[in-house]
Amino acid sequence: MEEMQPKLLDLIPNERGWGVTANDREMVIGGGFGVREEKKLELRLGLPGEEDWNANRKKTEGLCANVKPSFSLGLFGAPQTKQEAGLVTGEAQKIQAKADKQTSIVERKAIAHAATPPAATPLPSNSRAANAPVVGWPPVRSFRRNLASTSKTVLKPQKWASGTCAKFENSTKGLFVKINMDGVPIGRKIDLKAYDSYDKLSSAVDQLFRGLLADQRSEIGTEKNVEEKGRAIQGLLDGSGEYTLVYEDDEGDKMLVGDVPWEMFVSTAKRLRVLKSSDLSASTLRTTSRKRAATEC
Amino acid sequence: MKVQSAMFYFPEEVIEHIFSFLTHHPDRNTVSTVCKAWYKIERLSRREVFVGNCYAIRPDRAAARFPGLRSLTLKGKPHFADFDLVPPDWGGLAGPWIEAMARSCPNLEELRMKRMVVSDESLELLVHAFPNFKALVLVSCEGFSTDGLAAVARSCKSLRELDLQENEIEDRGPRWLNSFPDMCTSLVSLNFACLKGEVNLKSLERLVCRSPNLKCLRLNRAVPVETLAKIMNQCPNLEDLGTGSLLADQFSEAYVSLISALQKCKKLRCLSGFWDASPLCLLAVYPICANLTGLNLSYAPTVQGQDFINLIQHCVKLLRLWVLDSVGDKGLAVVASACKELQELRVFPSDLFAAGPATVTEEGLVAISTGCPKLNSLLYFCHSMTNSALITVSKNCPNFTRFRLCILEPRKPDPATNEPLDEGFGAVVKTCKNLRRFSISGLLTDQVFYYIGKYAKALEMLSIAFAGDTDQGMTYVLNGCKNLRKLEIRDCPFGDGALLADVTKYETMRSLWMSSCDISLRGCKALATKMPSLNVEIINEWEAEMEENLNNGVAEVISNNNNKHINNGNDERKVEKLYVYRTVGGPRTDAPDFVWTL
């Protein structure tokens, strides 16, 4: 899946992460890049101070320099931290367990000894990576955070025209919605604010799922591996392709993407799906929200 | 025995009268548990209720118990929701509370809510259900728009206070200000500083003109200097002012007018706003600085360097100061020399992401502690901190009740010694016997928790991030801090052992938050099983697994959508976010999909 990584980096504005949690694969979710545990990526958005992990890695702060924390990815914590911390302290715990058995009073030295991994390492010389954003850090209220990013600009007077849609003021925030594709078990998230037209959205969806879909197919065992990879997903908007893009609006209705003005779409779309065009008429009739399904049962 | 029977007979009215002197709600809670008679008297005479966790009790039950309620304070989402760690749609809905109050407590006059989701419809209901409604205070809330504000403005016959602090309000236009009826003259406090959009300036001026009792007025950024000057001329009795945009041409009439208007405001004690403040506009403020007790410059990155120094050196009576770290250690040194009465200081980070030169460091904090011994409340964001600085600070200021230090780089050690900051924070808890709120950062081992558990006996709220080594750290805190009410932890290596070390402790606390720690579903389930009086909620997006299972037809759709995922066998999965709180209300009925109550 290595070749996928650069594509995602290119596509996902501000390097928003996406997440997969599976039993044997561990992905980093949140303001970082997807990594596999077994692959020590140089691009790991590890926390500074995680010296065991950072020691042999170049600090590629350039990738992080303009990243803003992913506000709407508040869903995800920073599991890479937890895993890293867990691995670092795994040893510490073993030492600690022994120390506990020996003494009832915890000696400061014992603790310090157990804590050697974090403490012994030198200060990261590259403090720029140190300020690479972690979700929800520093602990500043969203309100103030948003102001920090817009404070340099003087508020321009807006002409209030009746009849225009309500504009969302937080132009600096992303608007992430989930997007799932038929045949791909792993959902993604996509930032609607990053696009200003349906064409761009369609092309982004294509990029997002193209590789995944090809992998799905090749896993199933077709022989056309090489050609399958990178086959574009086209015709999402006009029904002409194998797949069609639909969305769920704030009333839970399934709608075809492309019917309403872009602004209205952005403000009402809650979730996206890439459906097989052949399934379209059947699926549009079916209630889609899981909540409904749950309450009906 | 006559004496005894005389003592048993005690008129209810007398008891009620005695209770009326009890305003502190924990005291009232205590007397209500003495006996049935006292319970009844107390509940009927209770005028103010504080609900620290809106899910700790069902709204209906609270409303029914206190029919005479006049003032309700509610808090919703966990504190870490402020930092985007709680997904949207998590909950904290105000609607059920307002509806319950509407049914049972017609005398409601004041509603204060923090971190709750309020809809426009709820606001409509609010103003129509309570004829005496007087004060609405919303802090860090969301879910409503300026239409809701219009409803409040329109319908409240005698609205005294409309205080909106740092809410996310959808802007549907400036007309809401017009909705205050002409006969509304009762306003004492109006704060709409967090509104991002335009405001109808003429309406604002007219409103201020007809509000002779106005003491507190906080404008938003869209209000220009011209309007501010006009307003100030109308309210010479203003005590608390939040300016709009302070961008002005020095030769403009507006600026001149502002200067003279401000000089007339002899009662002005608290200033905030300062959006886009030009150095010239700051000059206008100098004449009133000497009487200021509160100053908030934290939205004004333009006020720094010499401008800040020139301003602050006049503020000799200042009690509360909020600034950005762009004022630097130098600026803080001037604060220390000028503001001898300072009690509360907050220094916010001005630039969250770029690594410019360090702006405030331990030096600034030491200077403040040296010059301002009365300091009792601190929130300080900095790039680095040393143990010796913290030890000095705690010696200089033993009166801290709130101490929150955030070193911007997680796990950063003391740069002078390369050691953890255990000793520094330890010194704070050892010296400050009245410490109620504590937030720690930097490189920290279990040792700091040992100190906290041992010394921080008055501690009520503790926030921990990227700290500790083993379960022992959290266990120290749970065992030692007798008065702990809220514990929030993120990115620490505490696991099931710590979580389950003292499960009955959580019944004595309001809530526990743990995110990105090392706890598993097994541990959380164990907690839920042992402590039925707690709601053990996990927030997880094990979406991929759900999709996979659906596609493979593995999981059946059991009655509760959640059960499918909780009980599909793998209890070793790590729990990303855990929120535990005591409740008499049972599991939430409004929990979204991603919140699973075990």
UniProtKB/TrEMBL annotation, chain A:
GO BP annotation list: auxin-activated signaling pathway; regulation of DNA-templated transcription
Alphabetical keyword list: Auxin signaling pathway, Nucleus, Repressor, Transcription, Transcription regulation
InterPro entries named in the record: AUX/IAA_dom, AUX_IAA, PB1-like
Chain's role: Aux/IAA proteins are short-lived transcriptional factors that function as repressors of early auxin response genes at low auxin concentrations.
UniProt subcellular location: Nucleus
Record Pfam families: AUX_IAA
Oligomeric form and interacting partners: Homodimers and heterodimers.
Highest taxon, organism lineage: Eukaryota
Occurrences of domain PB1 (ranges): 174-277
Keyword match Secreted: no
Similarity comment: Belongs to the Aux/IAA family.
UniProt name for this protein: Auxin-responsive protein
Cellular compartments per GO CC: nucleus
TrEMBL record, chain B:
Location relative to the cell: Nucleus
Domain COI1 F-box, first and last residues per copy: 10-47
Domain Transport inhibitor response: 67-113
Keyword Nucleus: yes
Keywords from the named record: Auxin signaling pathway, Nucleus, Ubl conjugation pathway
Pfam family, one: LRR_6
Pathway this chain belongs to: Protein modification; protein ubiquitination
InterPro entries: COI1_F-box, Leu-rich_rpt, Leu-rich_rpt_Cys-con_subtyp, LRR_dom_sf, Transp_inhibit
Main location: nucleus
One biological process term in Gene Ontology: SCF-dependent proteasomal ubiquitin-dependent protein catabolic process
Record text on subunit structure and interactions: Part of a SCF (SKP1-cullin-F-box) protein ligase complex. May interact with auxin and auxin-responsive proteins.
Protein name: Auxin signaling f-box 2-like protein
Organism: Rhynchospora pubera
